[in-house]
């Protein structure tokens, strides 16, 4: 027999013994765990036999009792179905309860109560509804049970410069109780809503009521696990563009100037169009008048008797004028000229 074959046989035997030892140890631990479990006291807890949603009435066929460790019974749980159904009137689910989930007193109404918002409000909390639209309501993706931040957008008039617009975070991590008139947390299809009902304190209810008339409210959906508040600051127009208030004022003034120039040009064009329309109407009236005159037949002309005109002949005669009776004679005496008036001889 070769040495390699002998070594393999020995290793196989060692591994086999080791596997048997480990299996025995595991079986012993399981037997110990089962023995300890058998020694623990058991109790019963009422759970939902089927899935329940908001407003469902609790009946015996929707509930069942299961065994539960006595030291781990949830607070507010019921041991028997009879205990849960005790009292006059039916009970309803205030929130979604999954199958085999313990039914707690905080998740159902009292005897004879209805599944309303007042039944799900916490101690000292109020329900306040705010109006939203399809965009401000996070496009319909806010459902009962979600948490949202409430943002307030305002525009304040300033006597020194242009109006100032800014956004503040009014409230943080507010629980949504209902959207429109739906309070079922199992609803998962987005719906365009007109109102959202929030669970707030008395002071926060006053803030929401005042803010509804001071500006525009919008919602920001928070992460499901992010229930803590965070440090926020006001956001203004200068934060959007990086401009200072003076830059914004200058830009608005320039826009106002351009708008005034455009308005003046539009007014001038309107006046020119009015003049052209007036001239067009005048030409149309003249054309209409000419057409009317063209349709009128002229009266026949009556020939009058010819007039006899007298012919006058002119005769021109040339008459020799008579010579003057006297004449002037000039005589130089040296360098001096002397004139004499003498009778003209015939």
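Q: What amino acid sequence fits the structure above?
A:
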């Amino acid at each position: 027999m070769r040495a390699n074959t002998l070594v393999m046989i020995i290793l196989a035997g060692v591994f086999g013994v080791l596997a048997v030892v480990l299996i025995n140890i595991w079986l012993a631990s399981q037997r110990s765990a089962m023995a300890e479990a058998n020694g623990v006291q058991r109790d019963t807890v009422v759970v939902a036999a089927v899935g329940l949603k908001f407003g469902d009435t609790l009946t015996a066929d929707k509930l069942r009792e299961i065994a539960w460790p006595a030291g781990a019974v949830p607070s507010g749980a019921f041991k028997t179905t009879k205990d849960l159904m005790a009292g006059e009137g039916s009970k309803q689910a205030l929130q979604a309860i999954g199958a085999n989930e313990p039914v707690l007193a905080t998740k159902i109404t009292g005897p004879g109560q209805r599944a309303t918002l007042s039944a799900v409000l916490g101690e000292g909390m109020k329900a306040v509804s705010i109006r939203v639209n399809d965009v401000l309501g996070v496009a319909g993706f806010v459902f009962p049970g979600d948490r949202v931040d409430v943002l307030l957008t305002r525009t304040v008039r300033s006597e020194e410069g242009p109006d100032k617009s800014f956004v503040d975070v009014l409230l943080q991590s507010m629980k949504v109780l209902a959207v429109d008139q739906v309070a079922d947390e199992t609803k998962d299809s987005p719906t365009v809503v007109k109102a959202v009902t929030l669970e707030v304190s008395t002071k926060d209810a006053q803030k929401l009521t005042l803010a509804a008339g001071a500006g525009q409210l919008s919602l920001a959906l928070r992460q499901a696990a992010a229930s803590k508040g965070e440090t926020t600051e006001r956001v203004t127009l200068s934060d959007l563009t990086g401009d200072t208030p003076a830059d914004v004022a200058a830009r608005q003034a320039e826009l106002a100037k351009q708008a005034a120039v455009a308005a003046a040009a539009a007014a001038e064009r309107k006046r020119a169009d009015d003049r052209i329309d007036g001239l067009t109407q005048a030409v149309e009236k003249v054309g209409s008048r000419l057409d009317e005159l063209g349709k009128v037949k002229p009266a026949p002309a009556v020939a009058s008797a010819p007039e006899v005109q007298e012919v006058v002949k002119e005769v021109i005669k040339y008459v020799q004028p008579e010579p003057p009776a006297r004449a002037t004679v000039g005589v130089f005496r040296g360098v001096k000229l002397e004139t004499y008036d003498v009778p003209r001889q015939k």
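Q: And what stands out in the fold?
A: The chain has a mean pLDDT of 78.
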